[in-house]
Amino acid sequence: MISNFDSLINPKRHFGAFLLHNFYAGYNPAFVESVLDLFDLSPKSVVFDPWNGSGTTTRVASQRGFEAIGFDINPTMIVVARATCADKSTFNSSISTLVETILHSKPHETGISQHAFKFSPKAKSHSKSSIREPFELWFCGSTAKSLRILEKRIFSCLGGTSRDLHDLSPLAAFFYLAFFNTVRTFVNPFCGSNPTWIKMAKEDEQKLSLSRKDIADAFRRSVIELCICFDEAFLNNPCGNDDYPSKSVELQIADASSLPLGNSSVDAIVSSPPYCTRIDYGVATRPELAALGYDDLAMDSLRRTMLGANTVPRELPPRSEEWGTEGLKLFDAVQSHTSRASRGYYDKWIAQYLQGLSVSLGEISRVMRPGARCALVVQDSFYKDVLIDLATITSEMAQIQGLLPIGQVPHKVAVSLASINSRSKPYRSNSPATESVLLFSKSS
């Protein structure tokens, strides 16, 4: 039994973070280090993250010599996590030469219908003949075409023959990440006060027009910035390995509610489910998804599969005892709230979240070996004036699914994106948040 939690590092990203991509839902690599130390795993242990995001868990676990598995439903994050799998030998004097080769190569493919990466299992797309260039949401036709040509050049030089992200090499992922950051720089004018919500051009006059030189120069800068980031990561590698990471990493597009893993197959889980805050991570990564070829229909389909999505089902999901006492209490409080759309929209949203989290925790329990341990980072929030105590909800659900709580470590959060909504002020003047590390074990 674990009894001393003082060694656990605060999960928030404020020191030693490996910031390849500005993805909000992240935690400190030092936190993962401290969890793995606390769990005291055997060298042959398998470490898993069902919401892998930018790959912090898999990167640190691999660096520590463990077999690492990371799944995420968002293809963007598979690319980011794959880029972190690059070892030191990737970054040599040939990088600058490779950049120029990419910029001046002739792409092997033509037409939007032939470039798109394979979508996640549940995502749908228009027929190939009707796909619209996703970049045209923000860019004029000629600029969108230039950006797509650059994407195809990266794939032609580094992507091989498969359009499956599972087959993307770390080097190719590195250059795709540089391309993501290039696009992100250009679409910044479409970001409002909420950095996770990317607007689209309403009129053609609002669309951006860029020269090929502008795009090429920005891409070069992005590559240089990423190289610096990697250099710092290698320099600050606490394990002192020349090769980084040092163990195999398996990354897949997968839904946490339906994990493609066998029963009792992992020894430790370090993860953070999407918080119940209505932050739309599909929209937050829309520019990157556009780079991967996600059209409107595929984008909508992806958003509907993500835990915590703003999109809701037509029918209200039925109440379930597997939501736990606190989850059912929250659902009733939301449905009976006097504010507009509490019944008809927000009750569907909260029910969808509770059901998705419950099923995902059941899957987590299923894949954990007897004696395996799990650390989940969760954060509370509010619906109007109703507290969403996600720590208690998650703990109750996990116990229903067969996990044993062995510890809880709270941390106060000074600022969270969930608190920037000015429309919440009539309901409460202060919105403090608590982020909690929940620790569980699977009974032997």
UniProtKB/TrEMBL annotation:
UniProt entry tagged with the keyword Oxidoreductase: no
One Gene Ontology molecular-function label: methyltransferase activity
GO biological process: methylation
Domain Ribosomal RNA large subunit methyltransferase K/L-like methyltransferase per the UniProt entry, residue ranges: 173-281
UniProt keyword list: Methyltransferase, Transferase
Signal peptide: none
This protein's name: RNA methylase family UPF0020
Organism of origin: Abditibacterium utsteinense
